[in-house]
Input
Amino acid sequence: MNDAPPYVPPKVWSWQKENGGRFANINRPIAGPTHDKDLPVGRHPLQLYSLGTPNGVKVTVMLEELLALGHAGAEYDAWLIRINEGEQFGSGFVAANPNSKIPALVDRSGTTPIRVFESGAILLHLAGRFGAFLPVEGAARAECLSWLFWQMGSAPFLGGGFGHFYAYAPTKIEYAIDRYAMEVKRQLDVLDRRLAESAYLAGDEYTIADMAVWPWYGTLVKGQLYESGEFLQVQEYTNVLRWTDQVAQRPAVKRGRMVNRTWGQPSSQLHERHDAGDFDTRTQDKLAPAP
Ligand SMILES: N[C@@H](CCC(=O)N[C@@H](CS)C(=O)NCC(=O)O)C(=O)O
Output
């Protein structure tokens, strides 16, 4: 029985650090850097600063797909940004992404470095630069862009809404969990109906739309996000499951999901990627433990 009086918002909101739940140590109501720290720069044209969360995986999958197609200009260094330790608030990272969230890309292929932030913008930047995974015109292009932006607009309800209140909030609030469970099931049904019509989201071809949606909704439908598989009855979405398994078979996807990953099986974690050979030699199971 909870006898706490109902919450009445005060006239003016104030920052109560201890009320922030699981991410209280990194959440702040202000932007900008908290400390001076330059970003490292490697030898490749593309410098990625990221972590192997669904938003990070979108980009490492795209880079591995481009390399698999033979685009040597897509060689990249992937540097680890530990968001739980506040590394997204270092001055160098904030210069690359004023929004202080992974992923951030600095494209050093030309004479002046170009910063790109927001995973959808990074996918579009790379697709444009290499002329790949984005249909060039017509209905297929419109469909690809529509599903890409669908993901950018929808996933915050899945992660920041459902995931936050179902898995992370310090108290379980029925109203909030109900609201976001309903929305996430609706989103899964949207995807399921689309994937009943076509092999991939934009049509017959695998595109950046699939790369954006798969890390979030593929993980969700396999019951691997927020331990919510049974709660959401994810097995009902058979077309999403078919597509999820198909995408997971791609060698570039298998590599991309390992990059900047700091949890799970040691053999699945490649904390930093600076060379194609790193997948064979530098996963956590192969590195000697620190002395
Ligand atoms: N819309 C952004 C979302 C990026 C995002 O939310 N990144 C999270 C990790 S998945 C992050 O860096 N959080 C750190 C923080 O909020 O301080 C994108 O797609 O790039």
